[in-house]
Write a structure and sequence with these properties.
Blueprint lengths: L1 E4 L4 H12 L5 E4 L10 H6 L7 E3 L5 E3 L1 H9 L9 H31 L7 H24 L10 H10 L13 H11 L11
Parallel strand pairs: 1-2
Antiparallel strand pairs: 1-3, 3-4
Helix pairs in contact: 1-3, 1-6, 4-5, 4-6, 5-7
Length: 200
C-alpha cells in the first residue's frame, strides 16, 4: 500500500496514525502542496481532484478523503464497531470535524505554519480564533464527561479529531486551557503503537 501525503498535514497524519494503531504496512510518498505537486500531471492521474492524502491499495485501486480512508483501514477491526448506531456516531463526529473543526483549526494552522502568517491573511487568521475555540470547547465538554468521542472506547472518531486538535497551538489556540482535551490527548498518546506526527 502506498500513501501520498504531506507529513505536516493533519489530514495526512490521520492515515499514519490509523495505520500505526492497526499495524498496517505501507510506503510513504511525500507530496509538497506548496510546490504545486498535487497539480502535476503525474499526481492528477492518481487523483483527478488534486488533493492529498491519497492511498493506492495493493490491488491498484485508489482512495481519497482522509476519513473515508481511515474507516476503510479500520473495517473488521476493534476500531470499527458493527453496531449501526455506534458507527453512525463515529461518522457524526467525522462530519463535524470536516465541516466545523477543520475549517477553523486547520486553516488557522495553515496560515500560521505553512504561510508564516502573512499580513494579507492576518484578519482571516484572527477571525478564525473565536469559532475555533468554540469547536474546541464543544469537544472539551464531551471529553470531560467521557473518555472517548464516540462510544466507550477508542474509535476512528478520535483519530479524525486528534490529528488537528493536538497541534491546535500551531494555529494560535491555547490548547492547555482545555482540561478534557488534554486528558484525551494523553490517552491517545498512551495507546499501543501510537505514532506521533513527525513533519519532515
Amino acid at each position: 500500500m502506498k500513501i501520498y501525503g504531506d507529513k505536516r498535514s493533519g489530514n495526512c497524519y490521520k492515515l499514519q496514525l490509523a495505520a500505526s494503531l492497526l499495524n498496517l504496512k505501507y510506503s510513504w510518498h511525500d507530496v509538497d502542496i506548496m510546490l504545486g505537486e498535487t497539480r502535476s500531471e503525474t499526481f492528477l492521474t492518481l487523483n483527478p481532484a488534486g488533493e492529498i492524502p491519497l492511498v493506492v491499495l495493493d490491488d491498484g485501486r485508489h482512495l481519497s478523503e482522509s476519513n473515508a480512508i481511515i474507516n476503510y483501514f479500520a473495517e473488521g477491526t476493534a476500531l470499527a464497531p458493527t453496531d449501526s448506531y455506534h458507527r453512525a456516531t463515529i461518522q457524526q463526529w467525522q462530519f463535524w470535524e470536516q465541516y466545523n473543526h477543520e475549517p477553523r483549526i486547520a486553516v488557522a494552522r495553515f496560515i500560521k505554519l505553512y504561510q508564516g502568517l502573512p499580513e494579507s491573511r492576518r484578519a482571516e487568521f484572527e477571525a478564525l480564533q473565536k469559532p475555533g475555540n468554540r469547536a474546541l470547547a464543544l469537544m472539551d465538554a464531551r471529553l470531560q464527561a467521557f473518555n472517548w468521542l464516540a462510544g466507550d472506547r477508542l474509535s476512528m472518531a478520535d483519530v479524525s479529531l486528534y490529528a488537528y486538535t493536538h497541534v491546535a497551538d500551531e494555529g494560535g489556540f491555547d490548547i492547555k486551557a482545555y482540561e478534557g482535551i488534554n486528558a484525551w490527548i494523553a490517552r491517545m498518546q498512551a495507546q499501543p503503537n501510537y505514532a506521533p506526527m513527525t513533519p519532515s
